[in-house]
Predict the 3D structure of the following.
Amino acid sequence: MNENDCIKIIEILKETYPDAKCSLDFTTPFEMLVAVILSAQCTDERVNKTTPAIFAKYSTPEDFASVDIEELESLIHPCGFYKNKAKNIKNTAKIIVEKYNGKVPETMEELMALPGVGRKTANVVMLEAFNKPQGIAVDTHCRRISNNIGFSDKSEPEKIEQDLLKVIPEKYYKDVNHIFIWHGRNTCVARNPRCDVCSIKNFCRYYKSKK
Ligand code: SF4
């Protein structure tokens, strides 16, 4: 895949999904961070149904740093992996209070050093909370689309991101983070992708291989 074709694909997907944006609800960078931690192995829809009750009671890093862990586990239970997620959220909040004066750090390195925050989460926070996209957050949709179209043959998210960054100009990072997720949810779905109605099928390696 060369850069020209890559840009054509991005432009077509931007036209196909003009409303593509982050689907997690949040009002502060710290709420964004909590929502992304909760979204691991869980749908954004489920997270959005769970967070209003949590954020009504606890919202700041200071709140979460002193929260009763069993109560937090109970509040986030619907999002799955609640024990690990509760522990990571509380420990992350403590570090942000003690080391960063209650402010979510604004670099990938500092974010990725927080408990429960990997490269994907850090990428999402940098983009959505600070509007400073640093790369591509490779989730299940991005991985599937990248493999299908032929952007990358790798399976590890970090390696797929490296392949994507070789052909995607920086000015498109923000768009790609949104349109790949929407394309994966609406058209390039798992198991039976809707290739016949796909706006980028003529660029897709998987589609061409089936013809
Ligand atoms: S043609 Fe099919 S496999 Fe390729 S991107 Fe479109 S929906 Fe996905």
Notes: The chain has a mean pLDDT of 96. The pocket of iron/sulfur cluster is lined by residues 145, 148-149, 187-188, 193-195, 198, 200-201, 204, 206-207 (CB under 6 Å).
